[in-house]
Specification:
By secondary structure, the protein is an alpha/beta fold. The protein folds into two domains: about 220 residues, FAD/NAD(P)-binding domain; about 150 residues, 2-Layer Sandwich (D-Amino Acid Oxidase, Chain A, domain 2). The protein contains eleven helices and 18 strands. Strands 1, 2, 8, 9, 10, 11, 17 and 18 form an eight-stranded mixed beta sheet that branches. A hairpin with a 2-residue loop joins β10 and β11. α1 packs parallel to α7. It is globular and about 65 Å long.
Length: about 450
Amino acid sequence: MKRIYENIAYDTTLFPKSYWAQTIKRPPKLESNSKNIKNDIAIIGGGFTGLNAALELKEKFNQNVSVIDAGPVGWGASGRNGGFACMGGTKKSFQSLLKKFGHTKTKEVLDSQIKAVNQVNNNLVNYNIEADKVDGGELLFAHSQKSIKTIQTDSDFMKNEFGFKTSFLEKEGLKKLGISSPEAFAGVLNPVSFGLNPLKYATGLYYEALKQGINLFYETTVTNVKKHNGFFSITTNTGTIQAKKLIIATNGYSSDDMPIQLNGGYLPVLSSIIVTRPLTKKEIDQQGWTSQITSYDARNLLHYVRLLPDNRFLFGARGGTSASHRAQFSNQKKSRKEFERMFPAWAHVDTEFYWNGFVCVTADLLPFIGPIDDNVFCSLGYHGNGVTTASLAGRQIAQLTMAQSPPHLPTLFKRPLKKFPFPKLRRLGLRFAYVRANTQDWLS
């Protein structure tokens, strides 16, 4: 496979040592064999996108489907993210989208983000998945005095242009909400979001797919894909699967040569998380961050934080540009330093977990959901909001595969997949982008 990071980032024999991993009993490995399987549709990638696509194809179209994933259930981004079931999916602001594409297409993006949150909630209810859901919305907080005006202006814009209402809170309002940090000067509370345990959610989708008789091949590596006589022949380490149509649902863990149409069309970006030991009530009160609302700051290189149901604290940040052990050890120290600066009352509190994973970015900073070749479909590029965006995108890519017009699929997401200029230099370009973003954050 042709990938752009160190091999350690793709080693599916190493299950991430995340906080989520010790909250759940992982599904036992199925003794399945992919030898000489024939399907209507094969899905490469068994995370949120692939499982939602498989369930949609089975439930709505009664298709014979196989899901193939190189790792165990929840090994990829679906099992190692921060558990933010929130609006998002694009790194473009709504103001920039409006200026470039107009009101109608921008409103489609907004509506799709709301629908994506609802899709996750519907999955939890319909499949009876217990994923430690935490209601209350999502908070964007200003990390500096200068950034207060920025978040308030954006909030006013969304209300005036689209009728989307959020609540603006000054510093005292944040404290009453249970949010207190030297770097929380004001906030905008979006009610259309919630928190969850992403590994429990991913595992719940897996068990539902198993229940519905979907062919599931985890810990099964795809080594080649060829098309012959109108069928795709997918060679794996345990056999061959044939299918009339193919869905690629590997997002940031994709390969540039499988299929070749993805070459240069996506950029994996490392994100990292630390989680503390359980905090005492006294420690929580000393910092003043008592709310379990999912929260993130207004930086370009943002931090995302949550007080978890068992009183541990989750702190997420960008994970650098190298997945090597040495680079990640350095990044862990950097994250810890930022954590102590933002939450000084917890400087003495040990962090018991550290892990990383890939966020997937596209060249135009919009998700891509659509065909990339004859009977080959792909969905990727959720820009750090994959819990929700992938859940809806999986349903939408399934419908596109069946020649249907999915509701709530923005026109902008169906454009041809744009390639990065000089794709071999994507990681180098990312380093320059980080320098620029850090400078902008420092000035703000």
